Amino acid sequence: MGVTTTVELSGHDAVSRRAGGTARPAVVMGAGAPTVTSAAALTEPVFERVPAPRAGGEVASWGAESLGESVVPASLTDATITAVAGGRSHSVALTADGEVVAWGDDSEGQTDVPAALAGETVTAVAAGCVHSLALTADGEVVAWGGDNRGQSSVPASLRGRTVTAVAAGGWHSLALTADGEVVAWGDESKGRTEVPQSLHGKTVVAIAAGGLHSLALTSNGTVIGWGYDAHGQSTTPSSLWGQHVTAIAAGGLHSLALGADGTVTAWGCGTYGQVDVPAALAGKKVTAIAAGYYHSVASTSDGTVRAWGNNSDGQTRAPASVRGRRVTAVAAGFYHSLVVLARPTVATWGWSPCQDTELPTSVAGKAVTAVAGGRSHCMMLTSDGRVTVRSDDPAYDVPASLSGKRVTAIAAGWSHALALTDDGEVAAWGYGDNGQIDVPAALTGKKVTAIAGGYFHSLALTADGEVTVWGDDLYAQTEVPSSLAGRTVTAIAAGELHSLAFTADGTVMVWGSNDYEQADAPLS
Question: Residue 440, preceding bond cis, omega within 30 degrees?
Fold first, then answer.
């Protein structure tokens, strides 16, 4: 095992404990810090930029739950979560208003959030084996829980200094100061708290604490490790030499690194496959990583989560409630995993049938990525590429031609709807009295990258930067001006009776009705 000690557990308490603050500021990190959107692993292996409140959402957890560590407390049901951390048998969450909530095993007080945090705004959290850490907006570190090896005794050398990141290992803790220095305390065995000389003079931007080892990421993207190295977990692999790393994570006996190109590198103990990065991640851009005791977790740019390694308690098997949801942060405990899910909220108001406080069944539980609205129809696009239309008129029912296809963009005209599929095809439906749903044959075989819907006309932009317009031409809104010939268009838009295009050279072109000077582009 990565952490070798015997602890007698008693008085387990799965009731959540909380403390918190008021307004939540952005977290200031060291120079050159990576911009990633996750938080925490076995113990907060990495400190990453805490997402803005709008990027937060609800927390989901799975895996071991004998001590309540993966049973999310009801008190978080309506809270907006921005970061999570997983310890051995407890979990910690941070809300958008800077409040800390902890749940699971409380045998050593690791879920008893200190009263000292009440009224404070917390910006980061971490969870160790039997202790927890919090970082306040003014740069102070607060620790609680087990302290048998000094892991909760914040050193006096940090007093008066501004800390920008914290990490919690099995029985040791790390802090990163505003000037890029790493401070370590707790269990000194295996050298896990002996910050190496090789870090002196370098600016550290992220830290990670594993079971028996520690990692640091420098401003030039280099990973440096120290502590127990029997499995090579603290020796940076040659495959990372010359690569720019943006995030790090430390597990029980293994380590992870996230490259600037979105690829994951894993090294150290691989007994349970925790260092075997899944082939399913090939070609995907990973945005966040976390390392548990014997398992690993990653989330990708499309918001999905992938876990691998030991699955003894189901910790690598994301529940159905998470699949298809957009993940904004990941964390891993000893035998459980946690994610923050973006809330799939869509608000509409005005004339019925769009106004409704309940989302359609096809949308509920999914991340909505785009919305559009016409005269009497509302469109929603979810992260799984499906289109949902709300209307009392069956003319707006999603056409069968989109069945089985992944939609990447939607647009709504006055009385018609448009959708763009991932293979670059355009679908149009609704009312087409003026030809606005008659997709031109000229687009056949071309890859469309953007669409727009006007009053009674439609626009499409192809991959080679050409604009095609069709539908009502009463005000010449479909007559693409000759001045666009030879220019590469990068964006399009449609007004009621006019059309717009933005070119690669920064020129705005407008044509169609000019009754209110809407076609007099001030920048062209």
Answer: no
Distance CA(108)–CA(323), nearest Å, equals 34
- Cα separation of 396 and 378, whole Å? 9
Q: Which of 382, 383, 422 is nearest to 402 (CA)?
A: 422
**For 348-391, what is each residue's pLDDT tens digit?**
666 555 655 456 767 766 778 889 999 889 899 988 899 999 88
pTM for this model (two decimals): 0.64
What is the per-residue pLDDT across 440-499, written as a single tens digit (0 to 9) for each? 999 999 999 999 999 999 999 999 999 999 999 999 999 999 999 989 999 999 999 999
Closest C-alpha among 211, 214, 186, 188 to residue 199: 214
| Token pair in block for residue 114 | 């200190």
DSSP β-bridge partners for residue 94:
83, 100
Alpha-carbon distance 426 to 453, whole Å? Answer: 12
Closest alpha carbon to 63 in 384, 391, 292: 292
CA 49/CA 92 separation, integer angstroms: 17
Nearest to 416 by CA among 452, 383, 462: 452
Instruction: Note the helical H segments in 284-428.
Output: none
Three-state SS at 420: strand
The Cα diameter of the chain in Å comes to: 82
Cα–Cα dist 350/352, whole Å: 7
Tokens found for residue 405: 């296809």
- Residue 101 near residue 135 (C-beta atoms within 8 A): no
The region that residue 53 occupies, defined by phi over 0 for left and psi between -120 and 50 for alpha, beta otherwise, is: alpha
In this structure, are residues 58 and 73 in contact, taking their beta carbons and an 8 Å threshold?
A: no
